[in-house]
Each structure stands twice: as C-alpha cells, then as structure tokens.
Amino acid sequence: MIFTKLTSSALELRVLDYRTKRCARTDIRAERHHAVTCKRGGDAISRHNKLRDVVLQTCHRACISAKAEAGSGLGHELRNTRPADILASNWLCGKPAAAFDLTVHAGSAAVAAELRKHSANDAKCSELGWTCIPLVAESYGAWGSEAVQAISRLASCLATRTNSPKSKVVCSLYGRLNLTLVRANARAFLLLRCGYSLQEGDSSSL
Questions:
Q1: How distant, in Å, are the alpha carbons of 47, 120, 130, 132 from that of 139?
Q2: Which residue(s) pair with 86 in the sheet?
Q3: Per-residue three-class SS string for the chain
Q4: Closest CA to 103 of 124, 88, 123, 82
Q5: pLDDT tens figures, 93-128
Q6: How far apart are CA 158 and CA 142, in angstroms?
Q7: Which of 11-15, 139-143, 150-154 has the lowest mean pLDDT?
Q8: Would you tell me the crossing angle of helices 43-61 and 166-193 to the nearest 10 degrees?
Q9: Are strands 130-138 and 97-105 parallel, antiparallel or unpaired?
C-alpha cells in the first residue's frame, strides 16, 4: 500500500479501486503484457506521440529539418496517404527525405514489424519522393535494426552540433527514449490494473 501511494503521488494519479483486476475497456485480465499492448483508451497513442516528440526534438537540436505528421493535405489525389510521423528533409545529403514511421510493437518481433511497415508504406513514400524508415521499439525496450541505425546517425549529427562525444550522446538519447517508453508503460499498467484515473487538470505531466 505504501508503494501504491508513493507511485500514485509521483505520477499524479488518484486511486479509484486498487482491487480492480480486469481491463475495464476490454474485460481482459489487466496483466502487465495486456496493459502495455491494449489499444483502447488512448494509452498506446499517447506513448507513440511522446516517443515521436523525443525524436523530433532531437532532430531540431541537431539542425535536421524535420516536421511531425507530414504528408497530410498534399492534394486530392493523395488525401488518403498516411502521413509520416516525422519527415526529415535533409537526413542524408543528396538523398530523398526520410519518412520515419514510429511504432511500439508488442513482444520481441521488431524485424517482422519493420517488414510490415515497408510493405505498407514503401510505395506511398516512393510516390512522394521519400524513403520509409521504420522506427520500431519493442514494448519492453529493445529497438529494431533500422531504428538503431537511425538513432546512431541522429546522435552523430547532434554530437557534431554540440561538440560532444558521440558515445555520450547515444547513451543520453537512448536514455530519453527508453525512460519515455517505460514511464508510458507504467502509466498504462496503473490505469488498467489498478483502476487509476488522471487527476483533474492534469493533461501533460504523463
């Protein structure tokens, strides 16, 4: 009970019924794996957007021209084109813009998730003159190979910009990303398993 009180206080959550043992959204037992993969209630979207924002902010700090949710509003014929989570126009000199498609995948199947992203988005990106780069995070913290390469390049750009050792920048960037992921997972678990709800007026702290 002490741990529950401390955790709820730190995350600015209020306990409604700590005995709740089923997901109120799906009526499935709210065990840890379900909590971090449940698509209802907005937790998965919130986690995705927070990770996207970390990457976008890092691009800006590294002087990479990037914008979020690019691709929408490109004209009637492309109205159904799925926008890029982040579009980096100067990712590689002389190369097409990089369209980063970020996703958090349940379990440990990053390779399969990357293939699915390419299958779904390569043709659309080619029409727009972009290169699709999936940024796949596994729900418990591992990253796909293409994400690792992208994070390494992003860290190199930021290290050059800030005159810092690349190794230090890489550690810092992974630290921000994984802390964001873990915190979002913890929030989802508390909300589902313990019947928590956000306190009134809280819209951004989590």
A1: 10, 21, 27, 21
A2: 68, 100
A3: CHHHHHHHHHCCEEECCCCCCECCCCCCECCHHHHHHCCCCCHHHHHHHHHHHHHHHHHHHCCCCEEEEECCCCCHHHCCCCCEEEEECCCCCCCCEEEEEEEEECCCCHHHHHHHHHHHHHHHHHHHCEEEEEEEEECCCCECHHHHHHHHHHHHHHHHHHCCCHHHHHHHHHHHHHHHHHHHHHHHHHHHHCCEEECCCCCCCC
A4: 82
A5: 878 899 999 988 876 678 888 999 999 889 888 888
A6: 22
A7: 11-15
A8: 160
A9: parallel
pLDDT grade for 18, boundaries at 50, 70 and 90: very low
Residue 83 phi/psi, 5-degree rounding, is -70, 155
| Total-model pTM | 0.74
